[in-house]
Amino acid sequence: MAATIYGLCALVALLCAFLLLRAWGYSRYRLLLWSGLCFAGLTVNNVLLIIDKIFLPTQIDLSLLRILVSLISIVVLLFGLIWEAD
To the nearest whole number, what is the mean pLDDT of the chain? Predict the structure, then answer.
């Protein structure tokens, strides 16, 4: 059951990233770009979660890498929000 939920989370994040980046391609509104890049990073985070919890043995822990990817994704969105506020 956990694998299904992890997979659905990754698919939803990928769909959000795709839709946001496609909308940015049409409108060139930069906040869509930053949001799309954030969701692309969150997709990578969810894929790493699947790899970490389902496929790798328990001795290997990818939690630090997952946290780093999440942090970078949120920083990208935060940068975009600050950049667009000017």
Answer: 95
